[in-house]
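Figure 3 (text version): structure tokens given as input.
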């Protein structure tokens, strides 16, 4: 869908003129009521392919405090801070630094929101700072692939410090939104903070279209690591930092070329990612006595890396995750037993394990997990490398999410899933890092988690 010329004009206005034109005096600032939320999570990794994680208890206590300030009639500033008490993985009662309770502080958001156009009926907005961003309103756990994945290596993520109802991204940068009739355009410029190499600038464009109140279509493109702050990290050359042969090189390619070597080129973290999604609310057409969001079906698919590379990334079909979800009936007439009940399933035929060991933990290279870098893997059969005893097949993932409001300000959540959640793992030197791969890599691996959340 071509972008209207008028939208480009609005985009220029948003980034150049709006921050200046919208700057009122601080005397006009009005503080909003402080919002506070406290949550208690209890659950268990019921089954895991990792023996040290099998039946590990999950217990977390978190708090967030959010303050909003209105500056004039056009600008809103929002800052949220909080923290979480939790146990890291693995929980070994014989080792004090593994068994002790941890506390992680954090910033949930720190953004300025500027209305563009008529303040009573704005045609768009510009957000700057640390921004909670969600482009798929229906996704509960799986999905949101465009900004929650890496292409090279091909890795998917869910959860984090917050596991339940966490299908979103915390963007560090800017989000410009513009509405043109039934179409909404989002331009996102993010500074990479979750995926190596950190600091690179990644722009995205997302569009959603509602041809009917019950139907929504969406698409997007992300140019991951388009602007590199240090090209030698984004497209690393030579041997890994821990030694060994230069496994991050491949025979000469017409697009990515190493100017210092006419024989080999290098793998890169740079990638073009594409996404498409759709949803249809069957309840609008069926007119059943169920809830207004019941029988809503939604789906999302993404191509994580348009370009093929030899050996590791030579099949685009193996870089396409597909998620399908449905909201099941939660009420009949006036009787409501849940506010929401959603089931999601995902399929991806991956060549390698969903691991960040090589890209994040050990080498900082855009390569999938291999058992050893002591030899050049190109001399081996690909199936021998990718399907060895270290491989954990995770073609099918699933998730069940439920929510029930008990009284105003008190909500009960539950989630049962086999997903891509990587808990924080504590190393022998006391550092907290994401686990290299999900603890539930196979469909038979799963966990359950229940949350009681209070907010005012």
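Below: residues designed for each position.
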């Amino acid at each position: 869908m071509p972008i209207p010329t008028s939208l480009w004009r609005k985009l220029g206005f948003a980034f150049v003129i709006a921050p200046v034109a919208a700057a009122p005096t601080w005397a006009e600032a009005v503080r909003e009521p402080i919002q506070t939320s406290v949550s208690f999570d209890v659950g268990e990794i019921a089954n895991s392919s990792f023996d040290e994680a099998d039946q590990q208890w999950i217990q977390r206590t978190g708090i967030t405090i959010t303050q909003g300030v209105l500056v004039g009639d056009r600008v809103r500033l929002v800052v949220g801070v909080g923290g979480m008490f939790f146990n890291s993985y693995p929980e070994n009662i014989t080792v004090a630094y593994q068994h002790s309770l941890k506390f992680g502080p954090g910033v949930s958001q720190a953004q300025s929101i500027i209305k563009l156009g008529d303040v009573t009926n704005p045609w768009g907005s510009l957000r700057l700072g640390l921004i909670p961003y969600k482009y798929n309103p229906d996704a509960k756990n799986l999905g949101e692939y465009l900004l929650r994945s890496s292409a090279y290596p091909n890795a998917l993520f869910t959860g984090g410090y917050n596991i339940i109802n966490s299908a979103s991204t915390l963007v560090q940068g800017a989000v410009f939104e513009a509405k043109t009739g039934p179409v909404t355009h989002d331009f996102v410029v993010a500074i990479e903070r979750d995926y190596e190499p950190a600091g690179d600038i990644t722009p995205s464009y997302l569009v959603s279209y509602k041809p009917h109140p019950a139907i929504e279509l969406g698409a997007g493109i992300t140019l991951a690591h388009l602007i590199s702050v240090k090209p030698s990290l984004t497209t690393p050359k030579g041997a890994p930092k821990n030694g060994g042969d230069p496994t991050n090189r491949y025979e000469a390619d017409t697009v990515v070329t190493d100017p210092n070597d006419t024989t080999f080129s290098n793998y890169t973290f740079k990638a073009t990612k594409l996404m498409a999604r759709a949803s249809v609310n069957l309840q609008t057409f069926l007119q059943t006595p169920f809830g207004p969001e019941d029988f809503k079906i939604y789906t999302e698919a993404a191509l994580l890396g348009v370009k093929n590379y030899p050996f590791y990334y030579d099949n685009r079909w193996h870089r396409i995750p597909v998620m399908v979800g449905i909201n099941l009936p939660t009420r009949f007439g006036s009787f409501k037993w849940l506010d929401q009940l959603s089931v999601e399933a995902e399929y991806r035929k991956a060549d390698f394990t969903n691991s960040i060991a090589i890209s994040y933990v050990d080498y900082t290279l855009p390569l999938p997990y291999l058992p050893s870098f002591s030899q050049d893997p190109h001399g081996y059969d690909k199936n021998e490398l990718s399907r060895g005893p270290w491989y954990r097949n995770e073609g099918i993932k699933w998730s069940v999410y439920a929510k029930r409001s008990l009284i105003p300000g008190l909500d009960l959540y539950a989630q049962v899933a086999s997903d891509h959640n990587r808990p924080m793992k504590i190393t022998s030197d006391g550092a907290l890092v994401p686990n290299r791969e999900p603890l539930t890599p196979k469909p038979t691996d799963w966990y359950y988690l229940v949350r009681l959340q209070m907010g005012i």
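Residues 5-19+28-455 form a domain with the Porin fold (CATH 2.40.160.10).
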